[in-house]
Amino acid sequence: MEYVGLQTQIWRNNFKSTLLLVAFPGLILVLSWIFFFFINDANTSNLNQINQEFLYAFPWISGAVLVWFLIAYYTHSALIKNATGAVPLSRKDNKRLYNLVENLCISQGMKTPKINVIADSSLNAFASGINEKTYTVTLSTGIIKKLTVKELEAVIAHELTHIQNRDVRLLIVSIVFVGIFAFVSEMAFRMIGRGSRSRGKKNGGIIIIAVLAFVGYILSMLFKFALSRKREYLADAGAAQMTRHPEALASALEKISQDSRIEAVKRKDVAQLFIENPKEKKKSFLTTLFATHPPIQERIKVLRQF
């Protein structure tokens, strides 16, 4: 994969990402209509009734999704902190690191984000936030200590590129929508398990919800993976352009690949924010298909083409 015309690629990727984001609520509505179709015994002669029931439920479905989305969207910073054990870093805590972040931001004309640190000897980092007040770059103590200055600068540039390209906001949105399907699917299957002896239309409706929610979960995961994998390549390219040292990021990724597992990270949705997903081990076609990041060796290969 050779990068020619980076800004054009970013524009095209943002356009495709917008289409994918529209697909998330679209998928919720389509699956909701299918639910009413099956609950009416999958009878095409009842299309008017199916449409009426769907239109009646539409405001309630939309309202519930909107409330879920807003709560998750605005509480994600606290969730990420709790899931990683990250703590704020000030200039006096690590002047060298703080200056690296600040100098890169000055060179790009962007506001310096918050800096957090995870007390872990493994090597990893991620960016998060939805606006200038919440944008944050988080690094492990291991990556701070074990990388050279040039390598650390390249990693920080990678994360700042995610912020510049609004990747962090996009990923948070996709995580929220995937969470909706995961929650509904889990609750429906639990209800089926508790009421496995019961019969009738009510239990049949729960089964339909469970199946459709699971289908939605799988499809939304594929949407999300398509978003995150492409954006890792663009963030790598942006970091190479920002620092003028693509080899520094390639070298950093090699070191990160040897020890990226952050023990404090328990949630898979948070793990995918990192420069290398600490929860992923890509060994087969199936695991690669559902991977949140492209193979790190491929990323290194691309960087060394600059």
Protein traits:
mainly alpha; 11 helices; four-stranded mixed β-sheet
Record the SSE blueprint.
Blueprint: H1 6-39, H2 47-84, E1 87-88, H3 95-108, E2 114-118, E3 125-128, E4 136-140, H4 141-146, H5 149-164, H6 167-194, H7 201-243, H8 246-258, H9 268-271, H10 285-289, H11 296-303
Parallel strand pairs: 2-4
Antiparallel strand pairs: 1-2, 3-4
Helix pairs in contact: 1-2, 1-6, 1-7, 2-6, 3-5, 5-7, 5-8, 6-7, 7-8, 8-11
Tell me, briefly, the overall form. elongated
Structural class: mainly alpha
> How far apart are the termini?
11 Å
Neighbour order of strands in the largest sheet: 1-2-4-3
Number of helices: 11
Question: How many individual domains?
Answer: 1
- How many strand units? 4
Could you list the spans in which at least 5 consecutive residues all have pLDDT below 50? none
Largest pleated sheet: 4 strands, mixed
| Mean pLDDT, all residues | 82
Order of helices and strands: HHEHEEEHHHHHHHH
Output the radius of gyration: 22 Å
Please state roughly what percent of the residues sit in beta strands, choosing from under 5%, 5-15%, 15-25%, 25-35%, 35-45% or over 45%: 5-15%
Residues in helix, %: 55-70%
Structure description:
This protein is mainly alpha-helical and 306 residues long. The protein has one domain. It contains 11 helices and 4 strands, in the order H-H-E-H-E-E-E-H-H-H-H-H-H-H-H. The chain has a 4-stranded mixed sheet, sandwiched between helices. A hairpin with a 7-residue loop joins strand 3 and strand 4.
